[in-house]
Design brief:
Helices cover 78% and strands 0% of the residues. With 196 residues, it is mainly alpha-helical.
Length: 196
């Protein structure tokens, strides 16, 4: 009531409530809230806006849990396609939508669809994120289909390098924080007379 029914703030709130309802397994209520959020996003921001695309993905989730596979798959594919076009395959949102599409194909038992999508992902090489490539390779291995170590090892190496880089960044941040505390203490000690 405060923002009005057509404001983006209302849509953001509806999206958040829809996700909470989805997590609480109240899929019908989640769907209703997310449909309202999507309608506002499409009207206010347009159908190609990244936030609108995110709502497409979010709406597909409760539909997938309710086994409404046709609409859920359509929405996941649409979100993935729009995000890939706008932001590329390395974008975290694009990879999330691809991951969700793979989940749905597995949930509905469409092993041929999941295999086809996994092959597409693996053929992209470094254009797709390492985590999505690993998921695709894992699926291919579980199907006893032909896949090579060449598909898996580069993705594993990329993930390990990213993890190592993240650990280094965290250590540097912690050292910087320690320095903010330690430097004033050290200066205080050095300024004391007994060091002179």
């Amino acid at each position: 009531k405060v923002w009005g029914p057509e404001r983006i703030e209302t849509a953001i709130t509806l999206n958040g409530l829809g996700l909470v309802r989805n997590w609480n397994r109240d899929f019908d209520e989640a769907e209703a809230l997310l449909r309202r959020a999507l309608a506002i996003h499409e009207k206010v921001l347009g159908p190609e806006h990244p936030n609108t695309v995110m709502i497409l993905n979010n709406l597909a989730l409760p539909l997938g849990w309710k086994d409404e596979f046709e609409e859920s798959e359509k929405l996941f594919r649409l979100a993935f396609t729009k995000s890939k076009k706008a932001s590329g395959l390395k974008d975290p949102s694009t990879n999330l939508y691809l991951n969700n599409l793979l989940w749905l194909l597995r949930k509905k038992g469409d092993l041929d669809g999941e295999e086809s999508l996994s092959r597409d992902v693996l053929s992209l090489g470094n254009e797709a994120s390492a985590s999505v490539r690993l998921q695709a390779a894992q699926f291919m291995a579980s199907r006893d289909t032909e896949y090579t170590e060449d598909m898996v090892i580069p993705a594993l190496q990329e993930l390990l390098q990213a993890e190592e880089s993240q650990v280094r960044r965290q250590a540097a941040e912690e050292l910087g924080q320690m320095g903010q505390v330690a430097v004033p203490i050290l200066l205080s000690v050095l300024q004391q007379d007994h060091w002179n």
